[in-house]
């Protein structure tokens, strides 16, 4: 199962270690639930993208997990930021990422967001017919036009973003009109953007989208005399959450797309999950273990408030007992969270040695869209996050205190 864990994961003396740190030590020093990021894995993924597309501008899909420390690590590897809100822009700026390495997305940008984008000098991705005029009025100078290529990715319907009924982007006709309007308003229309979807496990739909992008650019040249300087083909490459899942390697997926693009344009890639997903492991402390209706339950001290993906997307995970990592499974257990919902189940069935109160459960592949989507349901504060490397752990997000839940109460 270690192939689902970060690169640095090891079993030492019967215990899981991450970045040279024993899981029990991490839990004792930082508490649980705890999201542990492996710096080596983050850097390796960033370098894999740069190797697959050496001339591309690579921007991190900040929504996967907006965190200043992670953004700084990625920036050291030459990665910029893809943001879609004032908050995400603030994270990127705090991490020291320059405006010319930031793209501002969003299907319903506010005037405040457009003004902030203009002040920061970022490139704005126009998503709607009324945005050229609003962007120009806000002082935005450089834009891309978001094309909806009419492609239905093979992924969960909630994370498909390029099909005809998507809330994102514009049809070819609308995108062409927005491009013309932007030029008339004096905006620099640098290029075109699309994004097929998230957790992509095959390249075929992305290839179709690239071909439709190129057809759109040919039409824009024919009808408007316009040629792109930039082609942004989004992100979305998936990761493995379970051993029976297969996804392409970065080195296989990205070149198949980039090689279809003209050599004289700036290519932009927007990976999120595939940069940080595998890098993250969540450590939980086991509490109640009991039988109910023929099902063996092991409850942990977190759940849907720190990882809502099973409830939102039917996401599947695997796990191991980090402090008993070499013991053979002797049963199948349902991992339940602590929240007052029957649906608060993190893993429906996983083979484990019989869990005991106080054991540490390690769930891999939780580096993306877990803490980023966390809530304080049931008044459960958000967990802490640390980054590990070379036998040391550094806190990158403090554990939220209960007092913080009352801060805005009146």
Descriptive notes:
There is one protein chain. The chain has 2 domains: 2-31 and 279-405, Lyase, Ornithine Decarboxylase, Chain A, domain 1; 39-273, Alanine racemase (TIM Barrel, Alpha-Beta Barrel). It is built from 12 helices and 20 strands. It has helices spanning 23-30, 39-52, 68-76, 86-94, 111-120, 131-138, 172-184, 204-224, 250-258, 273-276, 309-313, 402-405; strands spanning 10-12, 15-18, 21-22, 34-38, 57-61, 80-83, 102-104, 123-126, 142-146, 188-193, 230-232, 266-269, 280-292, 295-300, 320-321, 331-336, 345-352, 360-364, 384-389, 392-397. Strands 4, 13, 14, 15, 16, 17, 18, 19 and 20 form a 9-stranded mixed β-sheet that branches. Helix 2 runs parallel beside helix 9 and helix 6 packs parallel to helix 7 (172-184). The radius of gyration is 22 Å and the shape is elongated.
According to CATH, the fold-level topology of the largest domain is: TIM Barrel
Return residue spans where pLDDT drops below 50 for at least 5 consecutive residues: none
Strand content: 15-25%
How many distinct folded domains? 2
Indicate the structural class: alpha/beta
Overall strand count: 20
Mean pLDDT: 94
At the fourth CATH level, what is the homologous superfamily of the largest domain? Alanine racemase
CATH architecture of the largest domain: Alpha-Beta Barrel
Radius of gyration: 22 Å
Distance separating the two termini: 48 Å
Helix content: 25-40%
Brief sketch in words of this structure:
With 410 residues, the protein is α/β, with parallel strands linked by helices. The chain has helices spanning 23-30, 39-52, 68-76, 86-94, 111-120, 131-138, 172-184, 204-224, 250-258, 273-276, 309-313, 402-405; strands at 10-12, 15-18, 21-22, 34-38, 57-61, 80-83, 102-104, 123-126, 142-146, 188-193, 230-232, 266-269, 280-292, 295-300, 320-321, 331-336, 345-352, 360-364, 384-389, 392-397. The chain folds into two domains: 2-31 and 279-405, Lyase, Ornithine Decarboxylase, Chain A, domain 1, CATH 2.40.37; 39-273, Alanine racemase (TIM Barrel, Alpha-Beta Barrel), CATH 3.20.20.10.
């Amino acid at each position: 199962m270690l192939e689902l864990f970060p690169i640095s994961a090891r079993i030492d003396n019967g215990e899981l270690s991450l970045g040279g740190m024993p899981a029990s030590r991490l839990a004792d020093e930082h508490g649980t639930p705890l999201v542990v990021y492996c710096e080596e894995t983050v850097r390796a993924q960033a370098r894999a993208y740069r190797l697959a597309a050496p001339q591309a501008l690579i921007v991190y899909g900040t929504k996967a997990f907006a965190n200043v420390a992670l953004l700084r690590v990625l920036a050291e590897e030459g990665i910029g930021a893809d943001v879609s809100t004032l908050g995400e822009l603030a994270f990127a700026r705090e991490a020291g990422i320059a405006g010319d390495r930031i793209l501002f997305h969003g299907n319903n940008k506010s005037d405040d967001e457009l003004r902030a984008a203009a002040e920061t000098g970022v490139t704005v991705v126009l998503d709607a017919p009324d945005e050229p005029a609003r962007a120009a009025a806000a002082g935005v100078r450089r834009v891309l036009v978001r094309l909806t290529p009419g492609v239905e990715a093979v992924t969960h319907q909630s994370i498909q973003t390029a099909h005809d009924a998507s809330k994102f982007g514009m049809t070819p006709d609308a995108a062409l009109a927005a491009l013309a309007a932007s030029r008339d308003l004096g905006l620099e229309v640098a290029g075109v953007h699309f994004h097929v979807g998230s957790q992509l496990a095959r390249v075929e739909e992305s290839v179709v989208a690239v071909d439709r992008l190129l057809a759109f650019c040919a039409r824009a040249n024919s009808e408007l005399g316009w040629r792109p300087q930039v082609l942004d083909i989004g992100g979305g490459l998936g990761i493995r959450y379970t051993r029976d899942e297969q996804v392409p390697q970065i080195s296989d997926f990205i070149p198949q797309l980039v090689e279809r693009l003209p050599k004289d344009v700036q290519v932009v890639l927007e990976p999120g999950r595939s940069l940080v997903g595998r890098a993250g492991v969540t450590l939980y402390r086991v509490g109640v273990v009991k039988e109910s209706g023929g099902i063996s339950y092991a409850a942990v001290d977190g759940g849907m408030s720190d990882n809502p993906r099973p409830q939102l997307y039917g996401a599947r995970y695997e796990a191991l007992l980090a402090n008993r990592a070499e013991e053979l499974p002797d049963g199948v257990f349902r991992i339940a969270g602590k929240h007052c919902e029957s649906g608060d189940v993190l893993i429906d069935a996983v083979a484990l040695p019989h869990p005991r109160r106080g054991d540490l459960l390690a769930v891999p592949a939780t580096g993306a869209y877990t803490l980023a989507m966390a809530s304080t349901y049931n008044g459960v504060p958000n967990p802490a996050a640390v980054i590990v490397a070379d036998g040391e752990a550094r806190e990158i997000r403090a554990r939220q205190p209960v007092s913080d839940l009352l801060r805005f109460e009146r």
